[in-house]
């Protein structure tokens, strides 16, 4: 994937609004960006491509139309595999397992991609939407935003990341359970208090502008430092302090020898701006 030839998708629009910044827009506005089969395939392809694209250092995820996303497409999705009566229970169970693992991967690719991903959320972020933004690095939202862990209302335990990531993001296990068990809508102000989002904007336009500014700031820094930070933050979340410190030291024994350090220090000392070569 290169900035000259950003890929074309059916359910996503990828653009390159600023240097080293890509925007991935969920693009099924007539269905409130509900996540159908094509979406699940494309979001994987998209983030795998971005992971390898040296022209991209930061990603912004937005939703087209009046709502960020209504979550799983309830009319066109692999969830139908759950009720495939042609298969016996063991074969059906294996099929469902494989589908869930594949859909989990779709969002885990966002986390595995070393480039920071900023979710810019307006209006509703429902079900699978919460799974997706929980895999992002930074969440911004509009005043009218609301978040809903909706899965229990469709009779299923959320299975593509919310239960694993949300409690760690908000650091409030009791409230995470309340949100999961009740499927109540969490408004923007409460999401900010909890640390689910870091900033609230008046409307979508000002949020996109804010997201672009933030992305450009991150993109101007050493990609070695930024990507190393993301990898180690994700690792630290899932390991003990001792293990994570060990991993950090092993990481920087090579990455800490980058030419970017000398460039960055020189720029700091001389109060000059500098640029960093592609990673
Ligand atoms: C292995 C699986 C892994 C993933 C699991 C994920 C699970 C989940 O995401 S659970 C949550 C699923 N989503 C929902 O239950 C939300 C359903 N939608 C709504 O409740 C409302 O649409 C909403 C409150 C979001 C907005 O209401 P509003 O009145 O503003 O709009 P509508 O008229 O209802 O919708 C407009 C058109 O969009 C279609 N649509 C909305 N949501 C979905 C959806 N989830 N799947 C498919 N289509 C959806 C709706 O049918 C309307 O279409 P049309 O009739 O053609 O105009």
TrEMBL record:
<dbReference type="InterPro" id="IPR001753">
    <property type="entry name" value="Enoyl-CoA_hydra/iso"/>
</dbReference>
<comment type="similarity">
    <text>Belongs to the enoyl-CoA hydratase/isomerase family.</text>
</comment>
<dbReference type="InterPro" id="IPR045002">
    <property type="entry name" value="Ech1-like"/>
</dbReference>
<comment type="pathway">
    <text>Lipid metabolism; fatty acid beta-oxidation.</text>
</comment>
<keyword id="KW-0443">Lipid metabolism</keyword>
<keyword id="KW-0276">Fatty acid metabolism</keyword>
<protein>
    <submittedName>
        <fullName>Delta(3,5)-Delta(2,4)-dienoyl-CoA isomerase, mitochondrial-like</fullName>
    </submittedName>
</protein>
<dbReference type="InterPro" id="IPR014748">
    <property type="entry name" value="Enoyl-CoA_hydra_C"/>
</dbReference>
<dbReference type="Pfam" id="PF00378">
    <property type="entry name" value="ECH_1"/>
</dbReference>
<dbReference type="InterPro" id="IPR029045">
    <property type="entry name" value="ClpP/crotonase-like_dom_sf"/>
</dbReference>
<keyword id="KW-0413">Isomerase</keyword>
